[in-house]
Amino acid sequence: MTEKLPRWDLSVLYSAPDCPEIQKDMAAVSAQAERFSVRNKGKLAESTPEAFGKMIADYETLSTKMQKIQAYAFMNYAVAMNVPENVDFFQKTNQKTASVKDKVLFFELEINGLSDDQIKEKMTDPTVRKYAPWLQRIRAGRKHLLDE
Predict the structure, then answer these.
(1) For 6, left (φ over 0), alpha (ψ -120 to 50), or beta?
(2) CA-based diameter of the chain, in Å?
């Protein structure tokens, strides 16, 4: 008896590695990361709690889009690792998303540079409080991080 292994239905993410939606999303993520960096880099410490909450929400939106692209690339690769096109797509996607991550690396580093009192003050905003578990996780290892 031959059993068929289950397969992921990747079409819920994208229709194919060369579909226009992936290119469009990757370009959008890259542009969004650039705008995020220009608007926010070096500004976390003096931001109001409300502005800080918006920064975090924008960062989440950007991260979610990028994770969708990365998930598709990885699962497409994992389904058929011996297909050169899948390997190539996975590698190129990793390079592109690494470039995007470089643009927003400052954000978590600046969060870790905030004092406990600054974080406490920013937690007065309901949006920031929503992200409290994420902030705690980000700040947990701050003593062991290098700067940008």
Answers:
(1) beta
(2) 66
Q: What would the pLDDT profile of 63-74 be if each residue is shown by its tens digit?
A: 999 999 999 999
Full-model pTM: 0.89
> Rg for the chain (alpha carbons), in Å?
19
Q: What contacts 100, CB < 8 A, 6 or more positions away?
A: 29, 30, 33, 62, 66
Query: How big is the CA angle at 33 (ends 49 and 122), to the nearest 5 degrees?
Result: 10
Dihedral, 63, 41, 35, 39 alpha carbons, nearest 10: 120
